[in-house]
Design brief:
It contains eight helices and 20 strands. By secondary structure, the chain is of the alpha/beta class. It has two domains: 204 residues, NAD(P)-binding Rossmann-like Domain (Rossmann fold, 3-Layer(aba) Sandwich), CATH 3.40.50; 113 residues, Jelly Rolls (Sandwich). The strands form four sheets. A six-stranded parallel beta sheet has the order 2-1-3-4-5-8, sandwiched between helices. Strand 3, helix 3 and strand 4 form a beta-alpha-beta unit. Helix 2 packs parallel to helix 3, helix 5 runs parallel beside helix 7 and helix 7 crosses helix 8. The longest helix has 21 residues. It is elongated, with a radius of gyration of 29 Å.
Length: 370
């Protein structure tokens, strides 16, 4: 299958080309703003499917809307008609096509040209009226407020919010791409409008607060909730705008004669993830909890976990070595400790069911062995 992608160097085009490559499509022809009309016509001559993603949305001269959107699309349709083949086309239009402004009118006229082509040939045409697409590689200070917010916040630059209560309808680029590639195996269908989604409803203020929370999490290690599709997509987008020098950041280390401990992540909805070390012969822990639970995974070394029921006095021991992939879990009401019984440094990954709160630590000192 030969696939032609117009606007191939644009935001959606770049993401789509990567996805097509992952799917094994090797005959993909890119049409960019640098391509001539002759090159466009040559590319379309052998096309089996066309993704028409090219367009103009921020021209210096409003007249470019007509040439870059309507005119270019009519040239594309004429070339396909001249080939005498039913070549399916997917078109990235805009919700602005329903509005009476220069940009909207140019996109609507482009839609009409493609639907006329479908009527004349019987080819499948899918028109996607997209709104506020965001994701990796979206260009800041161009046509996406989300990209601009991500870019600036990731660099500690100021942002401008004119109306925090303004509503936003957002679509994630990966969802758009998946809707586009599904068309390659879709059964024949009538021309018309298609949807990509889900469409996430939010506000400008909520997006900004979420992104600022991501930035703060690198300083506090407290990760905001990422349980919704929008939050996960916004986080991926924010991280994609980090400059390479910000790909890593330091955490606070607590070091004492026993070893060290580092909290990697603290999430109010799912607890705390950390690691600690212990020198040979060192015992750590020696406390109990009423509600908090912990899970330990020995990464390297040998550890003896001791337990004592604080009411009945019942005792229990577990010995674990690194590489065994065994989890040891603490139980409320049981005092517990961890002793390095090996000759090397002990390294243990630890998860706690709640973030440590010094005001309510739920940690009571208690020896396992008297």
């Amino acid at each position: 299958m030969r696939i032609v992608v117009t606007g191939a160097e644009g935001f959606i085009g770049r993401n789509l080309r990567v996805r097509l490559r992952e799917m094994g499509h090797t005959d993909v022809i890119s049409v960019t703003s640098a391509s001539s009309t002759t090159e466009l016509i040559a590319a379309l001559a052998g096309a089996d499917f066309v993704y028409h993603l090219a367009g103009v949305n921020r021209p210096k001269d409003p007249a470019e809307f007509a040439t870059g959107n309507t005119g270019f699309t009519k040239t594309l349709c004429a070339a396909l008609l001249a080939n005498g083949r039913r070549v399916p086309v997917a078109y990235s239009s805009s919700t602005q096509a329903a509005l009476d402004n220069p940009y909207g009118r140019s996109k609507k006229d482009a839609e009409d040209a493609l639907l006329d082509y479908a009527l004349a040939t019987g080819a499948g045409v899918d028109v996607f009226r997209l709104t506020n697409v965001f994701g990796k590689w979206c260009r800041p200070h161009y046509n996406s407020g989300v990209a601009t917010f991500c870019h600036n916040i990731a660099r500690g630059l100021p942002i401008t919010v004119n109306d925090a209560t303004a509503t936003l309808q957002l679509v994630y680029v990966d969802d758009v791409v998946e809707a586009l590639v599904r068309l390659l195996t879709a059964p024949p269908h009538d021309a018309g409008f298609a949807a990509a989604g889900p469409v996430h409803s939010t506000t400008v203020g909520e997006v900004v607060r979420t992104l600022q929370g991501f930035a703060e999490s690198r300083r506090s290690s407290v990760v905001p909730a990422l349980g919704t599709a929008l939050a996960r997509a916004l986080y991926a987008t924010y991280v994609s705008h980090l400059p390479p020098e910000a790909f890593d950041y330091a955490l606070r280390r607590r070091v004492d004669p026993r070893g060290e401990s580092v909290a990697m992540l603290e999430a109010p909805d799912c607890g705390q993830l950390s690691y600690f070390t212990a020198r040979p012969g060192v015992t750590r822990g020696e406390h109990y909890h009423h509600s908090k639970t912990e899970r330990y995974l020995v990464i390297r070394g040998a550890a003896r976990f001791g337990f004592r029921h604080i009411d009945t006095g019942e005792s229990h021991e577990v010995t674990v070595h690194g590489g065994e992939a065994r989890v040891v879990e603490t139980v409320p009401g049981w005092a517990h400790d961890i002793t390095n019984i090996g000759n090397d440094e002990l390294i243990v990954m630890a998860w706690a069911s709640e973030v440590f709160d010094p005001e309510r630590p739920d940690t009571v000192a208690a020896k396992v062995k008297a």
